[in-house]
C-alpha cells in the first residue's frame, strides 16, 4: 500500500526525460539526404570520364640519305688574308687617335694625326723659296727684254756703219747671257716648286689613314706618344697606330697530316664548325693546298674558304673542319619515310592502320609499310615525323574517339607493383 510520500513523488515532473521529436528537425534531415543523393547522381552523370585511356609514342623521321660523308677531319684556326698594322710614314708625336677597338673604318679614313709643327715649318720655308725663285725669274726676264731690244737696235746701227762692230757684239753677248740666266732661274723656280710639293707631302704624312676597309682589332698608340715606322730598339717609341682586319678576307687554315693529304683536293666541299658555336655548321670549300710540308710536324697546310659571312666569325678562332665527299643525289625511288613502333600498327578492315592523337582525339590513318627495323616499322605513307601514335590500340577505339593519354609515372608504379 502506497503511502502519501510515494504518491507525491509520482506527481513530480521528470526533467531528465528526452523531449518528443520535432517536425522541424525531421525536415532538415530529409533535405540533407536529398542533397547527398542528388550530388552523387550528378557526379555519376557528368563527372565520370568516358575517355579511353591509351599509351602513346612519337614517330621518328628517317633521313633521305642524300648527304655527304666525311673523309677526313682536322682542326685549325680562322685567319685573315688581309690584315695590317698601320703606322705613320714619318717619326712624330701623336696628336690625335681617332679609332677604337671594334670600330669599322673605310679606306682612306683618318685613323690618327701627328704633331705637324715641323712639317708646317718645312712647307712654309718651301713656299718662301718658291716665291724667291719666281721673283728672280721675273727680274732676269725683264733684263733680257731690255737686252734683246738693245741688241736689235745696235744691229740696225752697225749695218748703217753708225757704231762699231764691237759694241754690237757686246750687246749680243749680254742678251745671250741673260737668256742663260733666265733658263737657270726658271729651273730654280721649278726645283723650289718640287720642294714645296715634297713639303706638302710631309704635312700629309702627319695624317694616318686606313689603307683598306676593315675592323680595328687593336689600338696601339695614345696622344703624346712618339711613333715611328722603324723599330725603336726597346725605347718608348711606338711602331704602329692600330691594327685593322678585312673581315671579308677571313678563311680557315688547317694542318693536315702527310699521311692523309692525298684525301684532300682543291674545290673539295668542307663543313666547318667553330669551337665557340658547336651547333653551327658553316659550308666551305678548299681553296688550295700549300705545296710545302712542315718537317717538324709532318703536316701540310690547307687553305679553306668560308662560304658564309657572319659577324660571329673573328680571326684566331679555333675551328674543326670535315672534308666531305661530293654529294650524291638520292635515287627517285628512295623516298624518305618515318619509323613507328610496331605496337602502334594494327590491322583493320583488311589494311594496316594507326591512330594519331590530335588534341585529345584519335584519328585513324591508313598506312603503307616498308621494312621492319627491330621493334619499329618503316612507314612510307600515312604518318609524318613528330606524330603521336597510340600503342596497342584497343578494339573499341574508333576514328574520332576521345582519348586520354596515360600518365607514364602511374604506369611505372603499376609495373613495379606487379
TrEMBL record:
<feature type="domain" description="YknX-like C-terminal permuted SH3-like">
    <location>
        <begin position="341"/>
        <end position="405"/>
    </location>
</feature>
<comment type="similarity">
    <text>Belongs to the membrane fusion protein (MFP) (TC 8.A.1) family.</text>
</comment>
<feature type="domain" description="CusB-like beta-barrel">
    <location>
        <begin position="252"/>
        <end position="324"/>
    </location>
</feature>
<dbReference type="InterPro" id="IPR058625">
    <property type="entry name" value="MdtA-like_BSH"/>
</dbReference>
<dbReference type="InterPro" id="IPR006143">
    <property type="entry name" value="RND_pump_MFP"/>
</dbReference>
<dbReference type="Pfam" id="PF25954">
    <property type="entry name" value="Beta-barrel_RND_2"/>
</dbReference>
<protein>
    <submittedName>
        <fullName>Efflux RND transporter periplasmic adaptor subunit</fullName>
    </submittedName>
</protein>
<dbReference type="Pfam" id="PF25989">
    <property type="entry name" value="YknX_C"/>
</dbReference>
<feature type="domain" description="Multidrug resistance protein MdtA-like barrel-sandwich hybrid">
    <location>
        <begin position="82"/>
        <end position="228"/>
    </location>
</feature>
<keyword id="KW-0812">Transmembrane</keyword>
<dbReference type="Pfam" id="PF25917">
    <property type="entry name" value="BSH_RND"/>
</dbReference>
<dbReference type="InterPro" id="IPR058637">
    <property type="entry name" value="YknX-like_C"/>
</dbReference>
<keyword id="KW-0472">Membrane</keyword>
<dbReference type="InterPro" id="IPR058792">
    <property type="entry name" value="Beta-barrel_RND_2"/>
</dbReference>
<keyword id="KW-1133">Transmembrane helix</keyword>
<feature type="transmembrane region" description="Helical">
    <location>
        <begin position="26"/>
        <end position="46"/>
    </location>
</feature>
Amino acid at each position: 500500500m502506497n503511502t502519501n510520500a510515494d504518491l507525491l513523488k509520482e506527481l513530480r515532473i521528470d526533467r531528465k526525460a528526452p523531449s518528443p521529436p520535432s517536425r522541424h528537425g525531421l525536415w532538415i534531415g530529409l533535405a540533407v539526404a536529398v542533397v547527398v543523393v542528388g550530388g552523387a547522381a550528378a557526379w555519376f552523370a557528368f563527372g565520370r570520364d568516358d575517355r579511353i585511356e591509351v599509351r602513346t609514342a612519337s614517330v621518328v623521321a628517317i633521313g633521305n640519305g642524300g648527304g655527304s660523308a666525311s673523309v677526313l677531319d682536322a682542326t685549325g684556326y680562322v685567319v685573315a688574308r688581309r690584315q695590317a698594322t698601320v703606322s705613320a710614314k714619318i717619326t712624330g708625336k701623336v696628336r690625335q687617335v681617332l679609332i677604337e677597338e671594334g670600330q669599322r673604318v673605310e679606306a682612306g679614313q683618318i685613323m690618327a694625326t701627328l704633331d705637324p709643327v715641323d712639317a708646317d715649318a718645312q712647307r712654309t720655308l718651301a713656299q718662301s723659296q718658291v716665291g724667291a725663285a719666281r721673283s728672280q725669274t721675273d727680274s732676269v726676264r725683264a733684263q733680257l727684254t731690255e737686252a734683246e731690244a738693245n741688241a736689235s737696235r745696235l744691229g740696225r746701227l752697225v749695218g748703217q756703219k753708225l757704231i762699231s762692230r764691237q759694241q754690237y757684239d757686246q750687246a749680243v753677248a749680254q742678251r745671250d747671257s741673260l737668256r742663260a740666266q733666265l733658263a737657270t732661274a726658271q729651273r730654280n723656280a721649278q726645283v723650289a716648286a718640287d720642294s714645296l710639293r715634297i713639303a706638302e707631302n710631309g704635312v700629309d704624312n702627319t695624317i694616318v689613314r686606313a689603307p683598306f676597309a676593315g675592323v680595328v682589332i687593336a689600338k696601339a698608340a695614345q696622344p703624346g706618344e712618339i711613333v715611328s715606322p722603324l723599330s725603336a730598339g726597346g725605347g718608348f717609341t711606338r711602331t704602329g697606330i692600330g691594327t685593322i682586319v678585312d673581315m671579308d678576307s677571313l678563311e680557315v687554315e688547317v694542318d693536315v697530316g702527310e699521311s692523309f693529304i692525298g684525301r684532300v683536293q682543291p674545290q673539295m666541299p668542307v663543313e666547318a664548325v667553330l669551337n665557340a658555336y658547336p651547333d653551327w655548321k658553316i659550308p666551305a670549300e678548299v681553296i688550295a693546298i700549300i705545296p710545302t710540308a712542315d718537317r717538324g710536324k709532318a703536316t701540310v697546310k690547307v687553305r679553306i674558304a668560308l662560304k658564309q659571312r657572319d659577324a660571329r666569325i673573328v680571326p684566331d678562332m679555333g675551328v674543326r673542319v670535315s672534308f666531305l665527299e661530293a654529294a650524291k643525289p638520292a635515287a627517285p625511288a628512295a623516298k624518305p619515310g618515318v619509323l613507328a613502333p610496331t605496337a602502334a600498327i594494327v590491322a583493320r578492315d583488311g589494311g594496316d592502320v594507326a591512330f594519331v592523337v590530335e588534341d585529345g582525339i584519335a584519328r585513324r590513318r591508313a598506312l603503307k609499310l616498308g621494312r621492319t627495323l627491330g621493334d619499329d616499322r618503316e612507314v612510307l605513307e600515312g604518318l609524318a615525323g613528330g606524330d603521336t601514335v597510340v600503342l596497342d590500340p584497343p578494339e573499341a577505339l574508333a576514328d574520332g574517339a576521345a582519348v586520354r593519354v596515360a600518365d607514364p609515372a602511374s604506369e611505372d608504379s603499376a609495373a613495379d607493383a606487379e
